[in-house]
Each structure stands twice: as structure tokens, then as C-alpha cells.
Amino acid sequence: MTAALLLALLAAGAEGDPDADRYARMRATMVREQIAARGVRDAHVLDALRRVPRHRFVPDDQVAFAYEDRALPIGQGQTISQPYVVAVMTEALALEPGDHVLEIGTGSAYQAAVLAQLVKRVTTIEIVPELAQEAGERLAALGYENVEVVTGDGFAGWPPHAPYDAIIVTAAPAEVPPPLLEQLAVGGRLVIPVGTDHQELRVLTRTERGLETRTLFPVRFVPFTRDPEPPPRDPGASSREHAPTPPRGSKEP
Known about the structure:
The protein is of the alpha/beta class and 253 residues long. It is built from seven helices and nine strands, in the order H-H-H-E-E-H-E-H-E-H-E-E-H-E-E-E.
């Protein structure tokens, strides 16, 4: 995020958005025509989508399209999901006010902001450092205090705060990452798109007896991005020739 954009966000939050009423009407229309009309019924989810200013989570050249029924590019080869998909995935989590949610794939932080309206705490992981930094600045500028942004490879989840009441993944791996299942509390839900050429949105629920899985519908998400694997160590090389790589996954300041 540029300094100018951060200042603009701060100023808008402090002085009020002169277009606030217009954007509020656009959000109301979005929820009524794109989301509620297609079967999303959770009143809390619908209310959260009416409140979160989606136009603040897209690049300047995409603001005019922020409330349209489609995904939008946000840079670094990533996208913000279409509003309907955000709503369906959020409703499928079956959230409670006291929940702690883990999100894999922060992106612009729109999904995290929606979750923050509904639960006590959100931890969100983004593998692209630039996006993670922008997301943290954007959330802070907009007053979201219950979201922690972490930079790292989300395949491993975030063990320090596990187990989680719910986990949501906003990019598609070929298979469900086992560490995410391990970090899901009993009674918790994992909502994740799975697949490569053909993707489907799945909901996995951990019970006392194991995992229950249901499939919602076909989807198209950006591929799940991983940190590159380090090259194999040559047993005959000295430690000075192969210094260890600094670990990824530290918190953003």
C-alpha cells in the first residue's frame, strides 16, 4: 500500500466518506440481488456483508466494479472473491461470536474483514509479503482490531493458536492440507476449494468420530501457493557452503 493510499484510508475513517451513502446502497443491492436471492439466509452474514466497505479492499482501478458479482484482480496474481462466494463460504463456517477463525490466503483482507464482524478473533495468513503488509495496514486504517495478519506458507496452518473453531481457505490446493485438519477443533468446520483443473468447494467438519465431508458446488479459485522447497543438502558439503535458510512465517510488526 502506498503512503498516499494509507493516508486516504485514515482520512476517510476520521472524517467520513463523502460517498458513504452511495456505497451503502450499493452494498444493500449486492446483498439483496446477488446473495440473499441465491439462497444465503444467515442474517448475521448478510449484515456483515452490508457493513464491510468492499470498495476499500480493491485497487483504485477496480473500485467501480467492487460490488459487481465477480472476482477482481488485486495484484501479485491474486484476486478478491466474488461477493456470493464470500457469503456462501462464510455461512458454511456456521460461526459463533466467541469463535477464533484461521484464514489461509489473506489477499486484500476483505474476507478477513467480513469474518471480523462475526467472531471474536481472526488469524489470517498470506504468503505474499507485499499483500500481507498492505492487508495489515488496510485493516488497521479501517479499525479492525481483532484480526492478526501473519506472513507465511499457509499449508502448515498456524500452530501457535490452534485449535481453531473454523478454518477457511481462499486458494485451491490439489488436496486438503493435513496440518489444517490437525488444527481444527472438535465441532469445527473447514471450508476449502479443492482441485486443480476441476475444483469443488468442500466443507469438512471434525466430530468425535472423525471427519464428515460435504461438497457444495464447483468453483474456480487461484491455485494454492507454497514456499519453494529448499534444494536437497549435499552430505559432503560443509555447513558454511549450505547455511540454513531463515524461517518463514513471522508475524508482521
